[in-house]
User: Which sequence fits this backbone?
């Protein structure tokens, strides 16, 4: 039971990285992307190929997995980010299907439908991080979850984050104010895909194998459900959404009723959760804190004088 709970926590951590990375694209920038599983696949296959075929260390492969996935994010972003709404969603959906079909048909590199087995275990200072010893891999995943959270929190509180939120709220107004919307959207897509590649590398190292059937459209929808459920534009919401979705998907195994509950029931359950959320809590379980512009105006010198509380306000001038 302890091993199973540790496995759940590891998967929650990997999905939390995916959810936070998609949240940067969807929640902060307002771009509807349906190809996040493709970036996960790129990261997973990059790690598997480098470690199995070229005997590269896990630490170099995870860095290169993020870089390659980030480049793929730019590749899809450059021609499609001038689109918006449903058109962008359809374009990213097509990209996800292309990646999966390339993986299935490029036998010489990816071994096609057979996948790549026997991915080596990560090592650190000569010590092997064994996926079968759950607490060792749990520490590794926890490190990358914390790193992802801190990086995204810093970025979204910076000038980049303010620009992304401006684009989300009103892209035309943001462009009028001098914000290069295409550049910032490309950066958001590249960063989100980079960390999805990191999650893919962890996925490959933990499962010690990768198969193309894992990274289908349903997985992209599942990650999007985590973002929407937890709350768009909140990092803690993305983590909470990953926790809830993973626990809900594994609930039959937790309570020992796998013989009664069919796999299709999970899809119905996720759909029901989304419908209920859209009706009663459309902003998600955790809502983002909106800036109090009135407070900023009151604290500014102009706002202070206008409010009659500044030096000399309300006095009779001779």
Assistant:
């Amino acid at each position: 039971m302890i091993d199973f709970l540790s496995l759940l926590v590891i998967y929650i951590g990997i999905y939390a990285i995916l959810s936070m990375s998609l949240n940067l694209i969807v929640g902060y920038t307002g771009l509807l992307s349906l190809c996040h599983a493709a970036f996960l696949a790129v990261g997973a296959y990059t790690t598997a190929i480098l470690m199995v075929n070229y005997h590269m260390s896990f630490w170099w492969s995870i860095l290169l997995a993020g870089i390659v996935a980030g480049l793929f994010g730019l590749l899809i972003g450059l021609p499609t980010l001038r689109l918006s709404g449903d058109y962008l969603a359809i374009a990213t959906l097509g990209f996800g299907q292309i990646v999966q079909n390339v993986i299935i048909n490029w036998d010489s590199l990816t071994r096609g439908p057979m996948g790549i087995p026997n991915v080596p275990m990560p090592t650190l200072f000569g010590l092997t991080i064994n996926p079968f010893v759950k607490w060792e891999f749990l520490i590794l995943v926890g490190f990358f979850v914390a790193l992802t959270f801190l990086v995204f929190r810093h970025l979204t509180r910076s000038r980049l984050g303010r620009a992304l939120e401006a684009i989300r709220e009103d892209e035309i107004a943001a462009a009028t104010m001098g914000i290069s919307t295409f550049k910032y959207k490309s950066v958001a897509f590249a960063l989100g895909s980079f960390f999805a590649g990191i999650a893919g590398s962890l996925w490959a190292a933990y499962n010690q194998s990768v198969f193309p059937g894992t990274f289908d459209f349903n997985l992209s929808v599942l990650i999007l459900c985590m973002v929407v459920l937890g709350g768009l534009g909140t990092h803690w919401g993305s983590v909470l959404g990953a926790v809830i979705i993973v626990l809900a998907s594994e609930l039959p195994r937790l309570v020992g009723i796998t013989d009664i509950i069919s796999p299709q029931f999970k899809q119905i359950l996720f759909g029901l959760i989304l419908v209920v959320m859209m009706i009663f809590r459309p902003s998600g379980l955790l809502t983002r804190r909106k800036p109090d512009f009135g407070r900023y105006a009151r604290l500014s010198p102009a706002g202070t004088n206008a409010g009659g509380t500044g030096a000399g306000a309300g006095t009779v001038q001779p």
User: Anything to note?
Assistant: The longest helix spans residues 2-28. Residues 59 and 124 are 9 Å apart (CA to CA). Residues 303-318 have pLDDT under 50 and may be disordered. Residues 2-216 form one domain.
